[in-house]
Amino acid sequence: MKAWRRCYRVLKRTGTLKIFVSFLVFLCGAAAVLTVLEPGIDTWGDALWYCFVASTTIGFGDICAVTRAGRIITVLVAAYGILMTAMVPGVVVSYYMEYLKVREKETISVFLEKLERLPELSKDELFKLSQRIREFEHKE
Questions:
Q1: Is the torsion defined by CA of 121, 118, 139, 137 positive or negative?
Q2: What is the distance between the alpha carbons of residues 103 and 107, in angstroms, rounded to a whole number?
Q3: Are 3 and 35 spatial neighbours (Cβ–Cβ below 8 Å)?
Q4: Given 38, 44, 65, 122, which is the most exposed site by the fewest CB atoms within 10 A?
Q5: Separation between Cα atoms, residue 70 and residue 77, nearest integer Å
């Protein structure tokens, strides 16, 4: 649950959440239009399924657009889906990498601060510091 909240915050901070929500609204709108235009799509649920399949570029072929307008909508849905598939994970990963860099810098600055105060540290603090150095050596 914590990871989903973090992902939500990242999407919200970067503005990608608005783009993602607009994509979902576009899918629902395209499904509504396809329900009216396409003779082979009878329900909104079928149209939404078709839009999902088109946006993910899976293309099961169980439902097909036969009208010119339906095919144009399908192309738009597929292009928008490809854009979303590329953009959302890219933004999340980029933001997370920056987050890790900032966290690493903070950790290093705390470590350097302790090294500067080395003569003032207690035996327990010195022991903990030496353990962290050993852990760092084993990671590399």
A1: negative
A2: 6
A3: no
A4: 122
A5: 10
Name residue, tokens 């050993």. 134
The whole-angstrom distance between residue 104's C-alpha and the CA centroid of its chain comes to: 22
pLDDT at 77: 96
Can you give the pLDDT at residue 102? 79
Tokens of 79: 């292009």
CB atoms within 10 A of CB 40: 14
Mean pLDDT by 10 residues, the chain (140 residues): 79 84 95 96 95 91 93 95 88 82 77 76 82 71
How many beta carbons lie within 10 A of that of residue 137, not counting itself?
A: 8
Sign of CA dihedral 125, 131, 135, 136: positive
- Residue 76 in contact with residue 30, Cβ under 8 Å? yes
What pLDDT is stored for residue 3 in this prediction? Answer: 76
Q: Which residue has the tokens 């919200």?
A: 12
Distance CA 138, CA 140 (A): 5
Distance, CA of 79 to CA of 2 (rounded, Å): 32
